[in-house]
Specification:
Strand order of the largest sheet: 1-2
Helix content: over 70%
Keywords: DNA-binding, Transcription, Transcription regulation
Organism: Streptomyces anulatus
Structural class: mainly alpha
Pfam family, one: GntR
Distance between the termini: 37 Å
Number of strands: 2
Protein name: FCD domain-containing protein
Order of helices and strands: HHHEEHHHHHHHHH
InterPro entries: GntR_C, TF_FadR/GntR_C, Tscrpt_reg_HTH_GntR, WH-like_DNA-bd_sf, WH_DNA-bd_sf
Shape: elongated
Amino acid sequence: MAVTDEAIGKIKEMIVSGALRPGDRLPKEADLAAELGLSRNSLREAVKALSLLNILDVRQGDGTYVSSLDPPLLLEAVSFVLDFHQDDQALQALKVRGILEPAATALAAERIDEEEIRELGALLDRLGEAPSLEQLVASDLEFHRRIASASGIPLLCSLLDSISGATVRARLWRGITEETAVARTLSEHRAILDALAARDARTAEAWATIHISNVVRWLDSVL
């Protein structure tokens, strides 16, 4: 394992230094192993590991390439791990979201344009006052995804997207067991939107914090 870790580190360094760029094809296995001072077996294991993380793309009959390294692609591994979450891990995911999402919402308040605000309003209008739980959760995911996108930081948006998927079951569970959850969620979404429309970053951040804290507090109390 230590030898494989060394091989992974050397390939990573080639990518970080720019010796290998997104879309580049890696040298032949024998040549690369000799260049890096590695055994072909350790190099092969390193390539397998990095392909699982979507850093490398192994194409049968064609060779091995550096992937696009786009954040959504690299964060698929995070989403995969979170798909197997237990309830305590869902709570951790929500707490991380509680750190990142208010910051994203504050940034969005400074950068969001009028069309994006109208689209958010239309999203909430389509939901109505008495949506099903499935409709509410789907709308909630889309609402926050659009706000994160408006922050102007693609990596932050991708991180939140990866984390949010792990909290869906908790949101559905809350909607079933907490009588006021639906009305409260709708009200908090409107408050966030009003703050965004007013370009009030501090208020938008505060409402996003309250919105997620309510879910965290509920889940913490029932675990």
